[in-house]
């Protein structure tokens, strides 16, 4: 399977004021690492406005901001834990908001790969053992280890 | 029960955006809906269930609808699925 987890896209504490701030800060790492084009962040923000990516799981809320493959240079998945929860709209439910504690930002070119990744993410974060590892990850090493183990 | 076979036609499959649209559509329907693919059963009213099913373009599914006006609602759902775009 193509490598998608990279150290430079693991953030154990992202301090963001709101969803847009979180996406801009995290997206900047993707751009700096050469994973995406300079249109990526704006495209993610636009998409998040129309089709929010927040999810309330059993034990954690997260968000999965992303956009279409034309803005991507190399596939990658980033994991950032938020210093304080940030409000995102809930995917598929326009009336519900979630207080996301974690971001999974995805830069995926192949649509089939996106479907596969989303399936994997759902499998991971509905698994209480895996969820506990991510929640407990208090530093870079622990978060990178969890991301590599479950998403790499 | 309304039951029909369908094929996921959206070019990128049921990734986040079309899955979100499908969930939003199904949540408004006062019936029980199940999408079957092999051993997989997805509740399209749950975005998590739908994404966990990982349905790509070309996936053959069985659409089941149970409840009042199930035939009419089922036909409408098939049309919605067929028209899902990127």
Core attributes:
heterodimer; A: 152 residues; alpha/beta; Mannitol-specific EII, Chain A; 5 strands; globular; B: 86 residues; alpha+beta; Histidine-containing Protein, Chain: A; 4 strands; 38% helix; 26% strand
Characterize the main sheet of chain A: 5 strands, mixed
* Helix/strand/pairing category of chain A: alpha/beta
Output the CATH homologous superfamily of chain B. HPr-like
> Major β-sheet of chain B, in short?
4 strands, antiparallel
What quaternary form is this? Answer: heterodimer
The best one-word shape of chain B is globular
Superfamily at the CATH H level of chain A?
Answer: Mannitol-specific EII, Chain A
Strand order of the largest sheet of chain A: 1-4-5-3-2
Can I get a quick summary?
Chain A is of the alpha/beta class.
Would you spell out the secondary-structure blueprint of this structure?
The complex is a heterodimer of chains A (152) and B (86).
Chain A lengths: L4 E10 L4 H14 L7 H11 L3 E3 L4 E3 L12 E15 L2 E15 L3 H15 L2 H9 L3 H12 L1
Parallel strand pairs in A: 1-4, 3-5
Antiparallel strand pairs in A: 2-3, 4-5
Helix pairs in contact in A: 1-2, 4-5
Chain B lengths: L1 E6 L8 H12 L4 E6 L2 E3 L4 H7 L6 E7 L3 H14 L3
Antiparallel strand pairs in B: 1-4, 2-3, 2-4
What can you tell me about this protein's structure?
The complex is a heterodimer of chains A (152) and B (86). Chain A has one domain: Mannitol-specific EII, Chain A. In chain A, strands 1-4-5-3-2 form a 5-stranded mixed beta sheet. Chain A has helices at 19-32, 40-50, 111-125, 128-136, 140-151, and strands at 5-14, 54-56, 61-63, 76-90, 93-107. Chain A contains 5 helices and 5 strands. The longest helix of chain A has 15 residues, at 111-125. Chain A is globular, with a radius of gyration of 14 Å. Chain B is α+β, with helices and mostly antiparallel strands and 86 residues long. Chain B has 3 helices and 4 strands. Chain B has a 4-stranded antiparallel beta sheet. Chain B starts with a strand and ends with a helix. The mean pLDDT of chain B is 93. The A-B interface holds A 47, 51-53, 55, 57, 64, 66, 68, 90-94, 111-112, 114-116, 118-119, 121-123, 126 and B 11-17, 19-24, 27, 47-48, 50-57, 86.
């Amino acid at each position: 399977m193509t490598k998608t987890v990279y150290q430079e896209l693991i953030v154990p504490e992202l301090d963001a004021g709101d969803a847009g701030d979180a996406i801009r800060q995290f997206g900047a790492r993707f751009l700096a690492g050469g994973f995406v084009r300079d249109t990526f962040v704006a495209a993610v923000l636009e998409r998040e406005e129309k089709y929010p990516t927040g999810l309330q799981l059993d034990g954690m809320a997260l968000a999965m901001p992303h956009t279409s493959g034309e803005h991507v240079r190399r596939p990658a998945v980033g994991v950032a834990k938020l210093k304080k929860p940030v409000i995102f709209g809930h995917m598929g439910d326009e009336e519900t908001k979630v207080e996301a504690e974690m971001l999974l930002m995805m830069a995926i070119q192949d649509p089939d790969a996106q479907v596969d990744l989303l399936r994997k993410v759902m499998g991971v974060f509905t698994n209480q053992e895996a969820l506990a590892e991510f929640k407990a990850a208090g530093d870079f090493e622990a978060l990178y280890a969890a991301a590599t183990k479950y998403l790499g | 029960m309304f039951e029909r076979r369908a094929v996921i036609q959206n070019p990128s499959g049921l990734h986040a955006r079309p899955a979100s649209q499908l969930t939003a559509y199904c949540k408004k329907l006062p019936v029980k809906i199940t999408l079957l693919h092999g051993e997989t059963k997805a509740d399209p009213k749950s975005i998590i269930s739908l994404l966990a099913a990982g349905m790509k373009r070309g996936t053959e599914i069985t659409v089941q609808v149970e409840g009042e006006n199930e035939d009419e609602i089922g036909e409408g759902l098939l049309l919605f699925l067929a028209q899902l775009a990127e």
